[in-house]
Amino acid sequence: MSHLDEFTSRLSFDLDDFQLEGCRVVEKDQGVLVCAPTGAGKTVVGEFAVDLALRRGTKCFYTTPIKALSNQKYHDLCEVHGEEAIGLLTGDVSINPRADVVVMTTEVLRNMIYAESGDLHRLNFVVMDEIHYLADRDRGAVWEEIILSLDESVSVIGLSATVSNSEEFGRWLRTVRGDTEVIVTDRRPVPLDQWMMVGRRVFEMFEPGGDRVNGQLMHYIGRVEESEEKYRPLGRPEVLQVLQGRNMLPAITFIFSRAGCDGALAQCHRSRLILTTKEEAEEIRQIVNAGVEGIPEEDLEVLHFRRWRSALTRGFAAHHAGMLPAFRHIVEELFVKGLLKAVFATETLALGINMPARTVVLERLVKFNGEAHVDLTPGQYTQLTGRAGRRGIDVLGNAVVQWAAAMDPRAVAGLASTCTYPLISTFSPGYNMAINMLKMNGLDESLRLIEKSFAQFQADGSVVDDVRAIERDQERLDALESQLEDDFERLGVAGTIDELVDYIETRRRLTEEEREAKKRARTERDKETTAILAKLQIGDVIAVPGKKRPQLAVVITPANQTKDPRPWVTTERGWSGRIDAAGISVPPIIVGRMRVPKNVRHQPRKNTRYVLSEFKRQHFERPKKMKVRSRVAAKYRKAVQEHPVHSWPDRETLVRAAEDYARISREQKRRRRRVDGATDTLARTFERILALLTEMDYVEIEQGQPVVTEEGERLAKVHSSADLLVAQCLKRGIWENLDPAELAAAVSTCAFENRREIAPAGENEVPTDAIADAIAGTQRVWAELAADEQRHRLPITREPEAEFATAIHQWAAGAPLGYCLSAAAHSGAELTPGDFVRSCLQVNDLLEQVAKTGYSDALRKNARRAINAISRGVVAVSA
């Protein structure tokens, strides 16, 4: 009996063809890339590699992108093979690290390779779960470093979500790793039904057995759009009640903001919704109480623990990165056990964590990408809805999109039926990588490895395409130029094509500026509307925009919150209900007051007659118009009007003819920039990095070859986005002579990234002069480094941020959580408890490196003391 036959005989289910094919490749000691939808069971191939290594007496490392996934996989493998056979390494946790099978984060393996660890001996397989993380902007390079640096004898098993360029990725793997099979399946083990919810009605997205949009859905939406009543989507509790009635729970509702998730949870908590039995509620309470042991009572109060636990016992929860990690882990455990029926989550839940649901709900198909609100891509839609359908539990999974005004079901159907999720490399050499590669391989081999990266592989391919496109563009430009010159002569215009193109570009910039101005004006109007709605009192008569003229309404119940105020009003036409800022295009105007008796306040819909009669009796004056006036940038309008082309005869005839010329010229310039960037290869970047490191004495030249110095050996152990800045601070003694809490504050400036900056409550003063001096020294070193990087044409290291310094100093000195969160806010950083804990763990991670690389015994000891001081309460429980 083969190893595979023995392995499958122990399973409680039959393997799919793609799983069997992947396992056969592993058994032949070849590399394999398995691309399959979420929940399809691709991890079985990785688990077979684990089993095979244990049977052979060799080693297997199972890598994951995040600690939570490593912890989960460690426990899964321990259940099958026993705790003595499996180890775990996640940077801050080390369990049985000498085991033949070790689960670890990718960074841990990368560091082991660079340290040339003895634990790499006898390594047979490396499983890279969620290998599509290679496209991650911040951490993707780590995957490529591992793939490029592992010994040729090691078989790499890549497990990926379905990507549209899997063949390209597979070709690269074959180039750098040798024999590698690519196995792709689009088949979901649990089929997915697509639905659209319109109010309380739930329609199938497609006609039965086809890919055409459901005619009944289109007809019903048409009726809703033609109705005079403004359409309002259901509230979250009502949505869950509808899903419960259709046996579609448990459900994950994806909301693309932390505040939105928390708001949804609060909305359900305010309602009478209960989704659990008494027995389930009691079991939840016991799990929750056990999960928060070790967190002080005063910190639990800051975390609003009792209210959060109350929501959990009723069957619903939020899940996002701003939560305390311990709370997030409790939510995950409860959901996996089937005790939670509804989770409101950000899209991070779609990545990695094993939390499938019967139903996935999407409230919106637009998300903020950090710069603008953009439509979901088909790949993102597939990733999110991939959580629907629990293998072995559900026969079908459900993806439910909530319809909103102006949403086109045909566009949604196109999104649901398209699979384009390309894997794009983000690999770029950095200082730590350069030092470690040079130390391991020497210059020539390092350059060869970098040129073999997937980023360079993709760049080389795209350069060929771009060069061909530039040639085609030039042919079209030459033809258009000839045509335009004929038009100039025919119309008797004494001008040039360059002038015409410049005029077109100026008009385009004006159009873009007008569009941006409208967006900005809309944001300001929304803020003003929100502020007005929050202040409205019972009896205020307001004017709001109507179809033909402003409409009057009286406030029956004021708003109960300021973030999303929704006062209850009754209009002069008899409609009664809540209004919000999203449904009002122009800020309302208060035009008077009306007495509102108790019976009207308690039952507004039954007592609209009173309001209607009062409107007729009192004759409130309404504004004639409530119109939005958009403001545009005057300089662009003036530039257009004063441009020489603006006064040409038959100007628009020429403009129409030149539009294509201008568009093709823009595209050609973009392609030229891409080609120029690609030909400035990653290897040249690597050489410029080495030139700077040589100047700074981390590298020296011996017999014409660069060699790592003693200082360089220290830099090799600093794994941080600010690695060279940290090494320079250590080298120049900037952080010496600080006590442990002060050291934590100083180090935090290189580890902390302020994602939600607020205006500081006062001057950003730090607790001690020693901290102030250390931060000033760090800033000074950064300014010098940034100037050097600019001179060498290298990316600029992120500037140190001091907004977390006071908070981490106070925490390390023993202050409670609430005090430290206030200290961060006072300094200009708005942190949730989850943000605070994550930032503490990041500081601890950097302090660990200081403890290994510091120049003095005192600094190394103080780094250890700082780590111990930070590792308490919510931080210790979360770690």
UniProtKB/TrEMBL annotation:
It comes from Corynebacterium yudongzhengii. Residues 23-181 form the Helicase ATP-binding domain. Keywords: ATP-binding, Coiled coil, Helicase, Hydrolase, Nucleotide-binding. This is RNA helicase. InterPro entries: DEAD/DEAH_box_helicase_dom (IPR011545), Helicase_ATP-bd (IPR014001), Helicase_C-like (IPR001650), P-loop_NTPase (IPR027417), RNA-DNA_Helicase (IPR050699), SH3_HelY (IPR058621), Ski2/MTR4_C (IPR012961). Residues 260-446 form the Helicase C-terminal domain. One of its GO terms (cellular component) is Ski complex. Residues 470-527 form a coiled coil. GO terms for molecular function: ATP binding; helicase activity; hydrolase activity; nucleic acid binding. One of its GO terms (biological process) is nuclear-transcribed mRNA catabolic process, 3'-5' exonucleolytic nonsense-mediated decay. Pfam families: DEAD (PF00270), DSHCT (PF08148), Helicase_C (PF00271), SH3_HelY (PF26090). Signal peptide: none annotated.
